[in-house]
From TrEMBL:
SUPFAM superfamilies: Periplasmic binding protein-like II, Winged helix' DNA-binding domain. InterPro entries: LysR_HTH_N, LysR_subst-bd, WH-like_DNA-bd_sf, WH_DNA-bd_sf. Keywords: DNA-binding, Transcription, Transcription regulation. PANTHER family: HTH-TYPE TRANSCRIPTIONAL REGULATOR CYNR, TRANSCRIPTIONAL DUAL REGULATOR HCAR-RELATED. GO terms for molecular function: DNA binding; DNA-binding transcription factor activity. Coiled coil: none annotated. This is HTH-type transcriptional regulator GltC. Residues 1-58 form the HTH lysR-type domain. GO terms for cellular component: protein-DNA complex.
C-alpha cells in the first residue's frame, strides 16, 4: 500500500467517477484502475462497485474512507505545518531562558516581530533553571537559550548578550538600609542568605565575595532571587543577588554595589551543527545585530 493509492482512493471516493478523478489527479484512467485493483487485492476486500458510469463505495469502502480520511487529514495538517515552519516569512522559534531575562526577552522578541516580514513568526517561551534550559538546548526542546554561564563546548555557540547588575539586599530597618550604595565588604558582618549550589549564579557571587576577602556566615539558602528576598525580608540575614523586577515586592532595601562594580553576563546560545529553520536563523541574526545596543538590565 502506498500513499499515492490512499490519495487516489480519496479522490475517487469523493467524485464517484474514475474518469473525473483521473483528470483531477493528472494521471491516466487505466493507472487509477490498476492502482485501486492492487489496493483491493492487498486488503482482500472490495472497495468499489460500478453503478452505470459511476462507482459507489461498498460498505467496507465507506469504513475504509472514514479511517484513511483521518490519517490523510492529519498528514495534510502536518505537511502544512512543516512548510510553514520552513517558510521565509513564517516559522516558529522555541526559546529557553533563566528567570532574570523574563523582563527583557519579551520586549526584544516584540521588537523582532514588529520588523517587516517577521509578523507571522511564532515563539514559545520556556523559563527554567540554568541546568534545565541547557538540557533543553541539548535535547532539541529549545532552538536558542539565554543562560548565565560561559560555555566551552565546541558544539555550542555562546554569545554575550547583556549585562545584569548584582545588588546587595537588606531588611527594611537594617543599619545599611539608610544607604543607597555600599562597598560589597559592608555586607560581610551580617549573616548571608545565599544561592543554592545548583544555581547558575552561585559561582559568580562566590567569586565576588572571595575577591573582597569576605568569609560569609551562610545561615540559609534559596534557589532564586524571590526565595532569597523573602528570607531577607523576614530578617534572616542579608544577601547579594541579581537585580530583578520582583525584588520590588519584598520588604527589603536594594543597595547598589559601588566597589567592586558587580554584574554578570547573560549569554545567548544555540547548537552549532543543529538544523535551524529560516525563522531561527533570522532571530539569531537580529540578536547579533542589536546586542551592541542593548542596555544592561
Amino acid at each position: 500500500m502506498t500513499l499515492n493509492q490512499l490519495y487516489y482512493f480519496r479522490v475517487i471516493a469523493s467524485l464517484s467517477n474514475f474518469r473525473k478523478a483521473a483528470e483531477v489527479l493528472c494521471v491516466s484512467q487505466p493507472t487509477l484502475s490498476v492502482s485501486m485493483s492492487s489496493l483491493e487485492e492487498e486488503l482482500g476486500i472490495k472497495l468499489f462497485e460500478r453503478v452505470g458510469r459511476h462507482v459507489e463505495l461498498t460498505k467496507y469502502g465507506l469504513m475504509f474512507q472514514k479511517q484513511i480520511e483521518t490519517i490523510l487529514s492529519l498528514l495534510d495538517k502536518s505537511t502544512t505545518q512543516m512548510k510553514r515552519m520552513a517558510s521565509v516569512s513564517g516559522g516558529h522559534v522555541d526559546l529557553g531562558y533563566i528567570s532574570p531575562v523574563t523582563r527583557w526577552l519579551p520586549r526584544i522578541v516584540r521588537m523582532f516581530l514588529n520588523e517587516k516580514d517577521n509578523a507571522d513568526i511564532t515563539f514559545n517561551f520556556g523559563e527554567g533553571t540554568t541546568n534545565a534550559v541547557m538540557d533543553g538546548l541539548a535535547s532539541g526542546k529549545y532552538d536558542i537559550v539565554f543562560h548565565p554561564l560561559p560555555i566551552t563546548d565546541s558544539d555550542i555557540i555562546s554569545i554575550p548578550a547583556l549585562q545584569q547588575e548584582l545588588v546587595g539586599i537588606v531588611p527594611l530597618g537594617h543599619p545599611l538600609a539608610e544607604k543607597d550604595e555600599i562597598d560589597l565588604i559592608e555586607l560581610s558582618p551580617y549573616p548571608l542568605v545565599a544561592y543554592m549550589q545548583a544555581s547558575g549564579l552561585k559561582k559568580r557571587i562566590d567569586e565576588y565575595i572571595g575577591s573582597v576577602g569576605w568569609e560569609p556566615d551562610v545561615v540559609c539558602e534559596a534557589s532564586d532571587e524571590d526565595g532569597i528576598a523573602a528570607l531577607v525580608g523576614s530578617n534572616f540575614g542579608v544577601s547579594f543577588v541579581a537585580k530583578v523586577d520582583t525584588l520590588d515586592f519584598f520588604d527589603i532595601k536594594q543597595l547598589h554595589i559601588k566597589n567592586p562594580s558587580c554584574s554578570r553576563t547573560i549569554y545567548m546560545a544555540y547548537l552549532k551543527n543543529q538544523y535551524k529553520t529560516p525563522a531561527t536563523l533570522r532571530f539569531i541574526k537580529f540578536m547579533r545585530d542589536i546586542i551592541p545596543t542593548i542596555a544592561s538590565i
